[in-house]
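Team,

Forwarding the record for the chain on the shared tracking sheet. I've put the sequence and predicted structure together so nobody has to dig through attachments.
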Amino acid sequence: MMEPVKAHFEWGQRVKAATDLFNDGSYPERPADALLVGVGEAGEIVQVGRHIDSGSFVYMVEFALNQVVGCMEPELTPWQSSAEAQ
């Protein structure tokens, strides 16, 4: 029997964008392909879900100005404070 796959990130965890995140149509009030979050911007995981077809984890991340963006694991990295990084 296969072990269930565990999400890499958890609810409430601080993360940062590993790449620029662009509008894929999720924000109809914003232009298509508009930059939503720049690489390195910090946010917090507010929900963890699974993509129905692929089974991949999808993370709802709240970035600055209460902007919530759906992200895949490769688009995120753990956040470290400057004290933790040393």
